[in-house]
Design a protein that fits this description.
Layout (H helix, E strand, L loop, with lengths): L4 H11 L3 E5 L3 H13 L4 E6 H7 L10 H19 L6 E8 L2 H9 L4 E4 L6 H17 L3 E6 L3 E4 L2 E3 L7 H11 L3 E4 L4 E2 L11 H14 L4 E4 L7 H9 L12 H7 L4 E6 L1 H17 L10 H9 L14 H6 L5 H25 L13 H11 L2
Parallel strand pairs: 1-2, 1-11, 2-3, 3-4, 4-5, 5-8, 6-9, 8-10, 10-11
Antiparallel strand pairs: 6-7
Helix pairs in contact: 2-4, 2-14, 3-4, 4-5, 5-6, 7-8, 9-11, 11-14
Bound molecules: zinc ion.
The site of zinc ion has 7 residues, from loops.
Length: about 375
């Protein structure tokens, strides 16, 4: 069933584990992600980034997506997650990643998202509080969970771009959480968006520990979130390059460090790049194994894009020839089915691994099955 993210976060907090949160940019990704979580009896957190919603709204130049595109795309992702998640035996949350403004959050909620992130991290502290508070009021009235961000991560992730990072100050974080009443807070503590995190990135886990400890003393609930936490599996990077790709200096966060912070107050770990890499490798492999598909009327154009963009690994760069499949899950012929299989297999490989590594395997029964209406009522009673 679909649940507000809060229900899943409460379980991670109570039982001391972390839950991977995986970005989806196509119906097939949502389907495969839910299925693999079911297989491992883990709750599922699927997320659509603000601009990914533009892409799912049919905007292949998603960096220029308008609010209209995002509203349409949010509904497409929402419909897909409902289709595969509503009758699923595991709790499924659909979360907006890096909501850029209040309007984006409203569009996501209208599309069926059960959780939103409002990213005011580039604003001055007081303005970030003000914007976040506004979104919290709107979302909580509807039982929808809210994640905010404090501190700046370096790196590139859709519209999120920053050269420099500033680590989150735990004292500020506690004040921010008290004033905004957010359910989750993304902190900056050494992770970075994108595939070039640099070799040997070191997480400042003390920032998470200090923040969480102060929250516990004050009796305040809030789960900390680790963004930019892809592990960038080197075997996949090597395979892509062996298949003619050109991906350089791609390094992620060590799995061992992510497992460690999962016991330091971090309950949600965002991963996007790993899935992109696996799907890209699978598509390259497909066209090598079955060269006749290079000239396929329906997917030959995908092969052309893979050949042109050798350093790219975002499937959105390659999938525009099959947008009907991306947006609605339609599979017109067997060639398109082969691409869909590449997408699904990539999701299963990466997501399955991380469900086990982050410790959410078998934890689905620990998540309270609560509806948005029930959650709204709870917020109302508690005055948050
Ligand atoms: Zn992020």
């Amino acid at each position: 069933m679909l649940v507000p993210l809060r229900a899943i976060l409460e379980a991670t907090d109570k039982y001391d584990y972390a839950q991977g949160a995986f970005n989806v940019n196509a119906v097939a990704q949502a389907k495969a992600a839910i299925e693999v979580h079911e297989m491992f009896r883990s709750a599922a957190i699927l997320q659509g980034a603000d601009l990914a919603n533009g892409f799912m709204g049919g905007r292949t130049d998603f960096m220029n997506a308008t609010l209209e595109d995002k509203i349409k795309g949010a509904a497409n992702i929402g419909d897909a997650v409902k289709k595969y998640g509503e009758n699923s035996p595991i709790p499924v949350a659909l979360h907006l990643d890096h909501g850029r403004n209040f309007e984006s959050c409203k569009a996501a909620i209208a599309g069926g998202y059960t959780s939103v992130m409002i990213d005011g991290s580039s604003l001055p502290f007081e303005q970030n509080i003000e914007l976040t508070r506004e979104v919290v009021k709107y979302a909580h009235e509807r039982g929808v969970t809210v994640e905010a961000e404090l501190g700046v991560l370096a790196g590139v992730e859709d519209h999120v771009f920053s050269n420099n990072s500033t680590y989150t100050n735990p004292l500020d974080a506690v004040e921010f959480i008290k004033k905004t009443k957010v359910d989750a807070l993304a902190i900056s503590y050494g992770t970075m968006h994108g595939a070039n995190k640099g070799k040997g990135a070191k997480l400042r886990k003390e920032i998470a520990i200090a923040t969480k400890e102060c929250l516990r003393h004050a009796g305040i609930f809030c789960v900390l979130v680790s963004h930019g936490s892809s592990t960038v599996p080197q075997y996949i990077v090597n395979e892509i390059n062996a298949l003619g790709g050109d991906i350089q200096n791609a390094y992620g966060i060590e799995l061992a460090q992510l497992k460690e912070v999962s016991h330091c107050g971090i309950g949600k770990i965002n991963v996007d790049t790993d899935i992109r890499l696996a799907v890209t490798r699978n598509m390259k492999e497909l066209f090598v194994a079955r060269p006749e598909l290079q000239k396929s009327p329906s997917i030959g154009a995908i092969y052309q894009l893979l050949e042109e963009k050798k350093s790219a690994f975002d499937p959105r760069a390659f999938l525009p020839p099959i947008m009907d499949t991306v947006m609605y899950g339609n599979i017109p012929d067997e060639d398109v089915a082969a691409i869909v299989n590449c997408i699904e297999k990539g999701v299963r490989e990466v997501v399955g691994t991380l469900i086990v590594e982050f410790g959410s395997v078998g934890k689905a029964p620990l998540v309270e099955k609560v509806t948005l209406d029930e959650m709204a009522e709870r917020y109302r009673k508690e005055g948050i």
